[in-house]
Design goal:
Elements lengths: L11 E5 L4 H12 L3 E6 L3 H13 L4 E5 L5 H15 L4 E4 L14 H29 L2 E6 L12 H21 L4 E6 L18 E7 L10 E7 L5
Parallel strand pairs: 1-2, 1-4, 2-3, 4-5, 5-6
Antiparallel strand pairs: 7-8
């Protein structure tokens, strides 16, 4: 099914980090497809309220709530509010994320913890808050927004790369656990909004492993060595 043919009438979606950027774009698309949408924001209330007012003026169902996704209690309260206002959640988009780049020598524990707790723990908290209902209804969709940094990070992104790579692992594990109950889980790896990714790539670029036969000192070609090469842009 093509995106333009997708009908989400009667479905309820949650988009974390949904007041601006990629999150707002996702929320806009879900609203256009007929879903009721709850957007979570952490500190920028004004753009969230402006978006909420705009959507309501168009007759769309939307609810905006403050939520720090790394706080499990705050996540539970947010989902309670969204469910009370819009209904049971059918679609979850884990988009909220932060960066605190620094060379590993300079990266202190608070920087590491903030990024991992927001980007990875936050997704886990949101899944936990919504997945039981999806399983009982035997229909649900979970979309985790990851990054090219999960596989080809830039220097200074140890915390961010670890969080996004972890999100890919979480996606694969959830897919195995939940697909049999009608809950489908996917990861989406967008480039930078409005431009190509760093170093000219488009989408996720993953390392490719090549194995080459090499001679040892006696001319024996049975031993192997492995090196990494960059794969071209994903089409």
């Amino acid at each position: 099914m093509l995106a333009q043919d997708l009908d989400l009438s009667g479905r309820v979606a949650v988009v974390t980090g949904g007041s601006r950027g990629i999150g707002r774009g996702i929320a806009e698309l879900l609203l256009e497809r007929g879903a009721a949408v709850a957007i979570a924001y952490r500190e920028r209330e004004q753009p969230a309220r402006e978006f909420e007012a705009l959507a309501k003026s168009r007759g769309q169902r939307i609810w905006a709530g403050k939520c720090d996704v790394k706080d499990e209690a705050a996540v539970a309260a947010f989902f309670e509010g969204a469910t009370r206002d819009l209904g049971p959640v059918d679609v979850l988009v884990n988009n909220a994320g932060v960066t605190r780049d620094a060379h590993v020598v300079m990266m202190d524990t608070p920087r590491w913890d903030l990024v991992l707790r927001t980007n990875l723990d936050g997704a886990y908290h949101c899944v936990r808050a919504s997945v039981r209902g999806m399983m009982l209804r035997r229909w649900g969709r979970i979309i985790n927004i990851t990054s090219p940094s999960a596989t080809m990070p830039l220097s200074g992104q140890a915390n961010y790369a670890a969080s996004k790579a972890g999100l890919i692992g979480l996606t694969r594990a959830l897919s195995r656990e939940l697909a049999g109950r009608g809950v489908l889980t996917n990861a989406v790896c967008p480039g930078r909004p409005g431009r190509h990714t760093a170093r000219g790539g488009a989408g996720c670029r993953v390392p490719r492993v090549r194995r080459r036969r090499v001679r040892d000192g006696t001319g024996d070609r049975r031993r192997r060595r492995t090196h990494m090469t960059k794969q071209g842009p994903t089409p």
